[in-house]
Amino acid sequence: MFYQVLKYVFLGPLLRLLFRPHVEGLDNVPPAGAAIIAGNHLSFSDHFVMPVIVPRRVTFLAKAEYFTGPGVRGRLTAAFFRGVGQIPVDRSGGKAAQAALKSGLAVLRKGRVLGIYPEGTRSHDGRLYKGRTGVAAMAIKAQVPVVPCAMIGTFEAQPTGRRLPRAMRITIRFGTPLEFGRFAGLDGEHAALRAVTDEIMYEILRLSGQEYVDMYANEAKARQQAPRGLTRRLRPDRGVRSSD
To answer: Is the pLDDT score of 207 beyond 90?
Structure first.
């Protein structure tokens, strides 16, 4: 109930007024049945704008920190994310990544739409970064279509560090659903997971027109922030990472 009121009465009309979204390919989102919407991630606003546009309810895997903040603000934030049906995900990797996969698969088994950002975190510079393989593992395991999605303009509207978004028009593009039946049973094979993830990222790239960087976003951000002369060890791909 809270989700519907927020989407159609409060947040939805406000975001439509603020961003005046131009939407392309919305009919590519299946009207029924389980599906994954995999998109680029440029802004905190992405969490809200795309679900407002999609007629069906979209459940995202959200970083656990949104649910554990201190004080009144932390409790309000946690209540908001729970109210809109978001699932907290521990981003520490290892067993936490496996728990995130299970949470995503549980959403898909109920025939719902799961939203995920394969990059694992927001782009700090507007470019598109290498995708993590959690999206592929879920798509292969659940045998559901993946709808690529490109957010265009949200980085300019609300880049990382900007508290309130600018009022400006954005574009949201949904691509043709991708099917991966040919990889059935290979959800434990890294080569298959990498191939599927790269195919998804290519479609997002084609829709968004972004510059692509063959590196994980968190690694690129760490290198940029590291003192000159220091080298940061690259972290291996650990599957699902929630957005931040």
So the answer is: yes
Q: Which amino acid is at 121?
A: T
CB 168 within 8 A of CB 154: no
Determine the residue type at 92. Answer: S
Pick from 119, 83, 98, 131: nearest CA to 242: 119
**Minimal CA–CA distance to 117: which of 212, 32, 47?**
47
Query: What's the rounded mean pLDDT across residues 208-232?
Result: 81
Q: Taking a C-beta distance cutoff of 8 angstroms, is the pair 202, 218 a contact? A: no
Is residue 230's pLDDT more than 60?
A: no
pLDDT at 235: 45
- CA distances 23 to 35, 70, 208, 223, 238, Å, are 19, 37, 13, 35, 33
pLDDT per residue as tens digits for the range 108-129: 999 999 999 999 889 999 999 9
Query: In this model, does residue 155 exceed pLDDT 60?
Result: yes
Q: 150: closest CA among 168, 132, 176?
A: 176
Residue with tokens 């409790």: 75
Rounded Cα distance between 205 and 40, Å, is: 8
Task: Give the span between the Cα atoms of 67 and 169, in whole angstroms.
Answer: 30
Residue 46 token pair: 């992405």
Distance (Å, whole) CA 240 – CA 97: 6
Between CA 44 and CA 160 the distance in angstroms is 8
- How far from the centroid of its chain's Cα atoms is residue 116's Cα? 3
